């Protein structure tokens, strides 16, 4: 055990109607620990979760703050519904910080037990500010009202070892291990800007720590920079009504109804209980949406080698409960048990691999040209234990591979790594190099935006080509959906506040296949409603998946099946039942919009969040290369004829590519105009004072930021 | 000619809903089919004959992410 350098006692606040009313503040520079009140103003304007995080972060930083400034904070909050056990997906924690990849607020959501146990320990939110001189860990004992800061240099770095050791250390016995949750990163976070945070939950059947990831935007890098090796919470006594709900019978009733849907329908719909989110791999490939070889194409005949059936039949343990919080019957946190590692420091060991989720199989698989399930699982394990965001790693590595294969960088410049598409051994070696901070791994984890600069300035690469094929916006790497044929999704990614992550909007089927949103105004309405609705999950502590990865049997009879109206009503009912308030589905959207617009203004304050920051790389919009055009020549030629009234027979290939590009870039400009109008923004993407006033967010500090931009 | 999700698509005599789904490679299991606004249940896909000029909606209930 390391030396305890701070010991703090507190009286755990009693939760009332979903809120403890207290937040925890720890300053690592001077070891200050304070309690703050959660005010009625905060609840009214920000609801909880990401709203609380952003409010605290706003007051912690200045426009000059960068990710490694001492004043930057990691803030986390679980929201007022977080921790209920009667519905599926109720244990989500939201985290915010200033990102090393984007220099603006990042938000990332995560399952696992830490957030709910933190709340039951008396804390609605947790701010971590400053920098420690020595590596430390923070232990929160929620039953006894005690916080200890302990020197932690002797503990292992990588997640699967560290979490197991700390879980054993703080549990009194094996039965007590489910009451401990650890937040930590890994050795990869030290040498990259894409370090992520693992949140543990102990699996008593497998007798291992399992993990969910707050992956996006470099939160693990920030935790490492603050010299925090781990956060640990322990709370014994989880039971159904710790949230002091105003109407527990409604929560029970809505929960039972939902669980019956899972029982009756999941095996007919998405099979979340068998394979989790990776159920969509083949569908994505068949519909031209599976990003393949750096988003060049949307699928590959080899995708069948990484189909859901392959993972279900050969790799993933079936029949065990895999919920990442109590009461989640969707149970989608699948894993491969006793998996034999073949490379790196853990070669020869058998481990539990959490995943693969869809993003993993698509990103570390198809997008790298890797169609080998065993390799994907090993990449999955190392990303997790090294604390590397696999989405950023996958998209960034796909970019590196294409640069290499197009002759923009050489094997020598990569320290001898043969990073051609499909070479999973080279991909794994790159991960190990990032973990060790050696060779090409010293720069490969800095993210696409910084790599573009290095490749151009130091390796002589073509800046225009790299701009076209580097799949990032605002500095964040795209998540794993090909979307060239969905204008709405192009906007959903590039106009997303934090960067191109799909958790704001996923409109591809509505737009590209169903043709439900044909006009710019239709698309703009979708790019208003869905980001606002999806934001709400992050305010209250819920997971998005139970909303629409399972739908009621009669959902098709509704006017707007894509919104899953019955499930939206479930959320309204649960919110009211926990908090005792009386919102409706319109008020739900208003709660979200307040935080959504606040985050946009926050980005403006930090120097991004304007029109110039919402442009995608052309690879997002259309075919960059001749090969891409030729791969779907029939479609593109048809579009030239029908949309532009051009005759492709009279054009050479380069002329056709150029005409397609002009058209698609113009379409995107028109989409931006429509979306900005719908969201109440100026033509430059700035929220207007009128819009802020209409939603009750015309706060002086926000007006001060936007007025010079009007 | 018929409309499929608002776009023109060639019709042929004897075309069933199943034929159309196969031709369009609509392989996603969780879909809703309406012909001229009328819901077609999955058990009728093989026998429901699409007529020339029909307006077919094939709604994929995939909301992703």
Explained architecture:
The complex is a heterodimer of chains A (710) and B (65). With 710 residues, chain A is α+β, with helices and mostly antiparallel strands. Chain A folds into three domains: 4-234, Aldehyde Ferredoxin Oxidoreductase,  A, domain 1; 267-477, Aldehyde Ferredoxin Oxidoreductase Protein, subunit A, domain 2 (Orthogonal Bundle), CATH 1.10.569; 487-550 and 583-709, Aldehyde Ferredoxin Oxidoreductase Protein, subunit A, domain 3, CATH 1.10.599.10. Chain A contains 29 helices and 17 strands. A seven-stranded mixed β-sheet of chain A has the order 1-9-8-13-10-11-12. In chain A, a hairpin with a 4-residue loop joins strand 2 (22-27) and strand 3 (32-37). In chain A, helix 11 packs parallel to helix 13, helix 18 (487-494) crosses helix 27 (653-679) and helix 26 (633-644) crosses helix 27. Chain A starts with a strand and ends with a helix. The model of chain A has no long low-confidence stretch (mean pLDDT 97). Chain B is mainly beta. Chain B has one domain: Roll (Ubiquitin-like (UB roll)). Helix content of chain B is 11%, strand content 31%. Chain B contains one helix and five strands; from the N terminus they run E-E-H-E-E-E. The radius of gyration of chain B is 11 Å and the shape is globular. The model of chain B has no long low-confidence stretch (mean pLDDT 93). The interface between A and B is medium-sized, with 32 and 20 residues.
